[in-house]
Each structure stands twice: as C-alpha cells, then as structure tokens.
Amino acid sequence: SKFIWQSKRDGYNHLYLYSIDGKLIKQLTKGEFDVTQVLGFDQKGANIFYSSTEVSPLEQHAYKLNLKNGKIQQLTTQAGIHQLTWSASRTLVRDTYSSQNNPGEVALINTKTLKSDIFYRAKNPFKGMTLPEITLGNIKANDGQTDLYYRLVKPADMDKDKKYPVVVYVYGGPHSQLV
Known about the structure:
Strand order of the largest sheet: 4-5-6-7
Structural class: mainly beta
Largest sheet: 4 strands, antiparallel
Shape: flat
Number of helices: 0
Order of helices and strands: EEEEEEEEEEEEE
C-alpha cells in the first residue's frame, strides 16, 4: 500500500514515502546531501538501507533507516568510499573501503548491533617512498554559496622559487563523486 520515491524536489536527492494513491506520507531523508543509492531492505521490510554523501561530498557512507519511527543509523564510519556486499538476510554486510589516507580495508558489519570488525588491511604500496604533498579543499563558486572541491598535488621535492607546469582536470559532475 506504500512506495518509496527518490526525488530532488528540495534540491537534493532524497527518499519520500508515498501511499499508492499518490499522497505523500513523509520525507524519509532530509538535509544538504544526496542519497546516492538505495541498497535494499531487511527481510521484514522494516528498514531500508541506502548510501549518501551526508558526512561529506567527498565520501560515501551506508545508513539504515527504520521506516516506522524514522530513526537513521550510520553503518559505515571510517573515512572514504564504501562498497557493500550483503548477506541474504541483510544482517551482515562486507564493507570494502578506501580513502586518500587508507589504501584499503575490509570490515564485517552487523546491521543490528552496528558492530564492525576489520578483517583485512591492505599494505601501503607507497611505504618508504617520498610522496607528493596532496591537499584537499574547497572554494566558493561565483554564487558565493556553492562549494567546489579540489585536490592539489604538489611535487615531492617542490621548490617554492621554481615554476612548475599545471594540469587542470575538470570532472563532469555533479553526478560523479570525483575531485
């Protein structure tokens, strides 16, 4: 008798609960972030799992939303982009994630208790190497409000008195989470 609709009606991609006669029951997610993917439901249909950019536009995390009381619980907490593989019952999830400062980890999350156990850590392939300085940041667009994110990579042995060529890579967002 109900369905969930994804819409950008408030300027961000969010989830809305409707009755089958088309009446809005309630907005399920709210805020200045996008729901990036619906990941499914638990076996009873009481909870929906989704991923979003709520923590940061530079990250993607998974959440559990109780459809009855609206309570939202964050399943993934480590910085980065998370890729999930679910058990059939949706009570366990394998979380594979990485970030600028993490070459990769795999954890097992219990979706009922939210307990997470890391069972694999990738070795840093750059250990012992001199790496360039990498800075993440943001600047305001011409409207004075919209954040535009950047990644600045400087040579490892940068000399401030020397000129260097610059490569500018523009991503084709907003559909892409790329800096």
